[in-house]
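Thread: assembly with ligand

MN 10:42: here's the input set. Chains plus the small molecule as SMILES. Want everything predicted jointly, not piecewise.
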Amino acid sequence: MSEMIGITRRKDVVVVEDLQMVYRVGKMEVPALRGVDFSVKEGEFVAVIGPSGCGKSTLLHLIGGLLKPTSGRILIEGVSISSVSDVARTEIRRQRMGFVFQSYNLLNTLTAKENIALAKRIQGNGYYEDGSAQKILRMLGLENKMEHKPWELSGGEQQRVAIARAVINRPAILLADEPTGSLDSENSRMVLNMLRELNSDYGQTIIIITHDPEAAATADRLIEMRDGKILNRVQNMFYAMGEKRS
Amino acid sequence: MFKLILSNLRQRPTRTCVSVIAVALGVALLLVSMGLSYGQLVDTVRRAQGIGGDFILQSSEASVIFALNSGTIPVRVQKVIEEVEGVEAVTPILAKFLGDQFHIVFGIDPESFGRVNSTLSFVEGGRFSEPREVIIDTIYANSKKMKAKDPLQILGHEFTVAGVFREGIGARVLLPLTTLQELNGTPDKATMFFIRAKEEVALEQVYESLQERFENYKITKTAELQEIMMDSTPVFKEFVTAMVCISVTISFLIILLAMYSTITERTREIGILKSLGASKSYIVRLILNESLLICAAGVGLGFLATFVVIELLVAAFPTLPVAISLFWRVTAAAMAVIGGTLGALYPALKAAGMDPVKALGYE
Ligand SMILES: Nc1ncnc2c1ncn2[C@@H]1O[C@H](COP(=O)(O)OP(=O)(O)OP(=O)(O)O)[C@@H](O)[C@H]1O
Ligand SMILES: [Mg+2]
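BT 11:07: finished. Tokens for the full assembly:
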């Protein structure tokens, strides 16, 4: 997985072409995305940054198939999800997407283990054979927390369970919307390290939205947005964060 | 999925319990009311059939609910019936409903009764031989703690119990026809005739002969008594339909309410499931299965409650006949499940159609 291949020769996991998204609120139209183009290659770790309201979450939801764009194209592993039926989009989401949210979004009535098991059962395809599932749980430092309910876990632990749930089925893309937004710096660092490890050790493709400069610095590449558009593409190592946290 | 449902049900114990109890109430209501009304009916039919005739002849305007009729046919009609081809034996019966004791007594003519009936047997004492003697059945004897030789008041007159017979024949209390005619003020009249056909003749043939000969009378085949009684009991069918509807409606409404409030509370959970890739059909199945589980528990509890209520009723009123057939058990369970599923359908579809992003409580 982690053999060195030139980045240009890797295949595209996500391709976004002239993506537009207009929300309708009553009679008013709220343009959230005004023509976004970019692509993410297999095994990339991309961070999306930008001021509040610039359309980051909208973009992530569109890529994840939770929303339908007003116009434009989204290809996931070569398959367009913008023009297919709801059923087909659900199917792609089920098999190829993993979500992590700022608010963890674990099911409160289930234990950590059951939360992960539920994802496995709903998706029920090609998850890490037991050995590596165990390895991931160990890496996430969750082995002895598996019987806990979400409220018995710290924010950092809950987020790690959510990450485990998101990657347990080997999704093509892990989509994370401000995964460290509710965490203190220590827990943030831990969560970021784990994402980093998933990326480097398992080749997990990751798109992360963040306001956190440290999180942005973890990524291979930054996509900076403003007002529903992408500003430029900067190679991460030379990036200096221009934004303030909002 | 099952774990998720169970954990959700456990999460809201009060609502789960209330829903289960409400469904149980619907089930028990249906079963108890059907048990009692059919019990009465089935018991009356069984005992009428226990007399042993193949046909019952009544005056044309009479009801098969014997309690509603009085003496209207002259006893001498018996001779005319006996002459009909294929008739083996005929016995007149005068039915009298005792309003104060709320049961029916039959006046019988022992001699001809014995020719129609072959199953009367005594556990104590024997047939009456005096005008002021009666015989009572075992259930009546048990409930009144009576035995042979005990006195018994009927229509303001003192009788003596001559014997106790095994229950299942005619009425719970049988007395001499002539005595009852006298007390009823209808000398030489009977309510109906029980007719026994000759064994070697086809019943249908005798039935036709009887109908031909007694055009202005009502002739009923005892084998068909139950259906005929159901048809002629005032509002029986309407009552049954109403009880079934009430039972369905209870589970429909309670499940609708429970599931609707569940999905409103669990909007976020539904959003999470969708983000995990749960399909619409998965969400629908989740809600429907949850309601099915509540209904199943409700049916179980309803059966239990029915059992307890019936036991208590029978303990309090030993002569009360109760009949809960398998048909009604299945119907009660089916009504709960159908009502519950219909009630859960709208919330389930609504949940399935939720916008996942909104459901996740974004913004
Ligand atoms: N469901 C919606 N209905 C109407 N307008 C919406 C909806 N969701 C988002 N918007 C609008 O679209 C624009 C982009 O929103 P989005 O949530 O994508 O921004 P964001 O970059 O994620 O912001 P933040 O950093 O605060 O999370 C905003 O102007 C927002 O008000
Ligand atoms: Mg956002």
